[in-house]
Amino acid sequence: MEKLKIGKIVGTHGLKGELKIRSNSDFADKRFKKGNEIIISYQNQDLVYKIITSRIHKGNYLVSFRDNQDINLVEKYIGSFVYGYKDDELLDADEYFYTDLIGMQVVSTEGTKIGPVTSIYDNTRHDILNIDHNGKNVAIPYVDAFIKDVDVEKKIIVVMLIKGLIDED
């Protein structure tokens, strides 16, 4: 089953093995729920843990796992990324995971082919699509003003271009 990055371990809390996780998941409440499994990527290994406690504290999730309820057992994970399994049941009918956009073809509203999405990043205000346009990187904000349609089945993203968004030679 495919896994998705859902957060990063940024610290510990207290002495009883709680890990402080900064989530980047749109489904954090479901992902970090007691009883769910998460995967910690540590020293090139995927370690699967079942959450036994979970709560929010100052914008981060504090979670703990059975047999790891001591700060000395978990502090080694600080800086590690946390993954969850890609679960389409988390999505509504018209929703998709951002990772599904990687590789999709981007075209303008006029039908001009721009190129494939190579990556997506968050610039804190909104997400940015990086697109390979004839060997050059084009960054398009993932906001309604630019993104007009996403067809996951056809793997096409339609964007509204404005002057200067793409440098033409």
From TrEMBL:
A Pfam family annotated for this UniProt entry: RimM
Subunit text: Binds ribosomal protein uS19.
Protein name: Ribosome maturation factor RimM
Highest classification ranks of the organism: Bacteria, Bacillati, Bacillota, Erysipelotrichia, Erysipelotrichales
Keyword terms, alphabetized: Chaperone, Cytoplasm, Ribosome biogenesis, rRNA processing
InterPro entries tied to this protein: PRC_barrel-like_sf, PRC_RimM, RimM, RimM_N, RimM_N_sf, Transl_B-barrel_sf
Gene Ontology molecular function, alphabetical: ribosome binding
UniProt note: domains: The PRC barrel domain binds ribosomal protein uS19.
PANTHER family to which the protein is assigned, alphabetical: RIBOSOME MATURATION FACTOR RIMM
GO biological process terms held by the UniProt record: ribosomal small subunit biogenesis; rRNA processing
Gene Ontology CC terms, in alphabetical order: cytoplasm; ribosome
Domain (RimM N-terminal): residue spans on this chain: 6-86
Name of the gene this protein is made from: rimM
Role: An accessory protein needed during the final step in the assembly of 30S ribosomal subunit, possibly for assembly of the head region. Essential for efficient processing of 16S rRNA. May be needed both before and after RbfA during the maturation of 16S rRNA. It has affinity for free ribosomal 30S subunits but not for 70S ribosomes.
HAMAP family assigned to the protein according to its UniProt record, in alphabetical order: Ribosome_mat_RimM (MF_00014)
Species the sequence originates in: Thomasclavelia ramosa
Family of the protein in this entry: Belongs to the RimM family.
